[in-house]
Every structure is written in C-alpha cells, then in structure tokens.
C-alpha cells in the first residue's frame, strides 16, 4: 500500500468491516470496497497481517476488526522510511520487534574481492538449479532444527509462503548447495526477482561452521550472476545477525533501506 494516499477524509460511521474469508477482511462504504485486510501464516507459525486502505479511518476500522478476530501475537512489516504507516500500526498497539536491513550486493568479483575464493578442501559447489531435492530437503530440515534449538527460526528473515506440512524446499531450482562426500552441508536460496535477484538465505550446517563455506557459496552465486550479466543482487539481514552483516559488508554490499517487524502481544 502507498501510505501517501492515506487520508482522513471519510466518515468512519459509513464504513462496515466484514470478514469475507478465513484470512481476508473487507471494509465497505456506499457499496464499494474501500479497504482490504489479509492475514498470512508463515512456516514458523507466526501470523503476519497487512491492510490496504485509502483513508486513516478505514485503516483503523479494519485493524480493530482484524485484531478482535485473530489470536495474538500478530506481526506486520513496514518500510522504516514510511513514518505514516508505522504510526498507524503503533496506534493499533504494535511495537517494534526487530529491524531488517536491505542490502544491494555487487556481483563483480573485482568489486567483491571474491574472484579467487576457493571452496574449502573436500567441498564442491552445486550450481543454482542443479541441487538434488532429497539431499537439499534433508539439509534444510537439519538447519531448521539447529536454528530452532538456538535463536529460533522466527529470528531468521523468511519469505511469506504457505507450504504443506513438512515441505520446506518446494522448488529446488532456486538453490545452490555446498556438497561434502555424499551430502549437502550448506545452501543458498536465490529468488529470481525481475532485474535484481534476491538472496533469501545463506545457511551452513553447524558442524561445518568456520570453514569458509558461506563465503565460498556467496562467491559462487555472485560469480554466476555476474557471468549472466546481472550487476547487483539484493539481500535482507536482521540487524542482530553480526555474522551475516560482516559477510555482506565484507564484499562491498551497501544498505539501501530497512524494514521494521512490528508485533502485537
């Protein structure tokens, strides 16, 4: 939603809000839909909500209805530069939980310094689109279990995707992997967003940390993008993730913006 269009020029008494589906709400005035609300469950079980409305009063009415219908805690994401939108959610009772930095990542090895980064001994890179589904899902489940046992998966940047139970890698063609012996020990997820691919996740199995696998995976993926004529990729990094911040800033990535994750408890 473009919050620049949020105005206060509508009589709130003329607006009727209704839950029209399990995860959708409408605000109606004069037989017209003047606002929409959605709830999206994430794979980690959290519920993220969004509201699309032209008027402040419609936003408030939809928020009141949705919050009454849904169990807490609830979450939402806002562009930190969008002060008006942030204030609307804060008025509804939401507070800031964390910040995610958006990075623009160069792909040119002359800029990143990754041109001569070798894979660790015994480790080979599996190109985007060539990873096997079975080993990839096994590694993904292992990494998820490790994250849940420590900081919790909710601390990781995650795409808002509804997935069948147990299916955590729906499309292996979006992944590159690091292989050792007959198993995968690291992965990168690359979303093919138009004009600027997005690095959605870099993860390495805990018993293979500090071997340079994450850096080698990043070098492999960025090099492939550069050879395809793509100059820049994007990535999101949670502010508290010092290791990921150091990895990206160490290859010349620059901050282009930030999102706030807000929560209502």
Describe the protein in words.
- The two termini are 24 Å apart.
- The N terminus is likely disordered.
- The chain is α+β, with helices and mostly antiparallel strands.
- Strands 5-12-6-11-10-9-8-7 form an eight-stranded mixed sheet, sandwiched between helices. A four-stranded antiparallel sheet has the order 1-2-3-4, covered by helices on one side.
- The protein folds into two domains: 91 residues, 3-Layer(aba) Sandwich (Aminopeptidase); 157 residues, Gcn5-related N-acetyltransferase (GNAT) (Aminopeptidase, 3-Layer(aba) Sandwich), CATH 3.40.630.
- A hairpin with a 2-residue loop joins strand 1 and strand 2.
Secondary structure layout plus pairing:
Layout: E1 16-21, E2 24-29, E3 32-41, E4 47-53, H1 56-69, E5 74-79, H2 83-91, E6 95-106, H3 109-112, E7 123-126, H4 133-148, E8 175-180, E9 183-191, E10 198-204, H5 213-227, E11 232-238, H6 242-249, E12 254-264
Parallel strand pairs: 10-11
Antiparallel strand pairs: 1-2, 2-3, 3-4, 5-12, 6-11, 6-12, 7-8, 8-9, 9-10
């Amino acid at each position: 939603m473009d919050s620049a269009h949020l105005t206060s020029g509508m009589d709130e008494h003329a607006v009727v809000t209704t839950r029209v589906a399990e995860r959708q709400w409408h605000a109606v005035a004069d037989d017209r839909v003047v606002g929409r609300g959605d709830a999206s469950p994430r794979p980690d079980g959290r519920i993220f909500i969004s509201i699309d409305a032209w008027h402040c009063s419609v936003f408030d009415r939809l928020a009141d209805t949705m919050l009454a219908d849904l169990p807490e805690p609830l979450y939402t994401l806002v562009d930190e530069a969008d002060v008006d939108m942030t204030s609307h959610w804060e008025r509804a009772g939401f507070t800031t939980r964390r910040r995610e930095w958006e990075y623009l990542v160069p792909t040119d090895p002359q800029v990143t310094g990754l041109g001569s980064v070798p894979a660790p001994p015994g480790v080979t890179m599996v190109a985007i689109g060539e990873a096997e589904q079975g080993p990839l899902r096994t590694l993904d489940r292992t990494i998820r279990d490790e994250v849940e046992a420590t900081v919790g998966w909710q601390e990781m940047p995650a795409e808002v995707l509804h997935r069948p139970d147990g299916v955590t890698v729906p499309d292996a063609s979006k992944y590159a992997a690091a292989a050792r012996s007959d198993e995968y020990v690291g992965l990168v997820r690359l979303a093919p967003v138009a004009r600027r691919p997005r690095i959605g996740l870099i993860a390495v199995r805990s018993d293979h940390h500090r071997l340079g696998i994450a850096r080698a995976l990043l070098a492999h993926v960025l090099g492939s993008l550069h050879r395809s004529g793509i100059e820049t990729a994007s990535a999101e990094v949670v502010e508290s993730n010092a290791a990921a911040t150091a990895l990206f800033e160490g290859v010349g990535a620059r901050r282009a913006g930030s999102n706030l994750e807000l929560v209502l408890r």
